[in-house]
Amino acid sequence: MRIPLLLFLILIVQSVTAQKTNVYKNDIGINMTTLLSEVIGLGDNDIVPNYNISYRRTFNKKAFRISAHAGLNKNSDFNNIDNSTISLEEKDFRLRLGFENHLYLSQKFLLIVGLDVLGMYQSSISVSTTGFENDIKTISAGAGPALRFEYKISDRISLMTESTLYFITGNENDKVTFLGQVQNDSNNSKYSLTTQIPSVLFINVHF
Q1: Domains in the chain: how many in total?
Q2: Could you tell me if 86 and 128 are in contact, meaning their C-beta atoms sit under 8 angstroms apart?
Q3: Does a structural domain hold residue 177?
Q4: Which of 65, 98, 145, 149 has the smallest count of CB within 10 Å of its CB?
Q5: pTM assigned to the model
Q6: DSSP state of 49
């Protein structure tokens, strides 16, 4: 009688354990690189993270990802040579869409291969008390492959890093004025091939 009872208890324990393993289809990723740089000195504090938040929807071994970044920087400097003050305001907005294939290396490790498309708007306005103003605006778009590596801490939490290769094209408008009069107004096309090594760290919350 003891053996059937023992087998019954083993089956119950296995059933409960299996129920604890959940598969979640959504996750929110938060870029922790800047925080780690300030806390433990990892990386360069002056580097602005490419994207500071992302959302992913998983369909079996494929997924759709949307990432965003918003940056704003304001500062002013005093020039002792001509006793002028220069104020600088910088804005950086980025949006990225990605389509991914998931390759499960083990229960803990996931290799992600994908293709991203992205758009960016950046502006830099510097104003001097001498009357000069320089306004630079850049609108860009690009695409390229992405390789991501994810480590699963639990069903709810995972860590992820990424490496990307993007071809980006855009237009830059550079306008200089003095006392309200336009001194220079130029438009330039820009092309670049940018790479991102696995130096960023995301913490993902699954739900």
Answers
A1: 1
A2: yes
A3: yes
A4: 145
A5: 0.80
A6: P
> Has residue 66 been placed in a domain?
yes
Taking the CA atoms of 144, 65, 170 and 92 in sequence, report the sign of the dihedral they define. negative
Task: Write out the two tokens for 140.
Answer: 């860009």
Of 49, 154, 63, nearest to 111 (Cα)?
63
DSSP-based three-state secondary structure for 153:
coil
Contact partners, residue 56, CB within 8 Å, separation at least 6:
26, 27, 29, 63, 64, 65, 66, 100, 204
Phi, psi of 13 (to 5 degrees): -60, -45
190 three-state secondary structure: strand
Residue 187 lies in a domain: yes
* Domain assignment of residue 41, given as a range: 22-206
Residues 6+ apart with CB under 8 A from 189: 169, 170, 171, 172
Half-sphere exposure at residue 183, Cβ-oriented, CA atoms within 13 angstroms = 10
* DSSP annotation string for 105-130: SSSSEEEEEEEEEEEEEEEEEEEETT
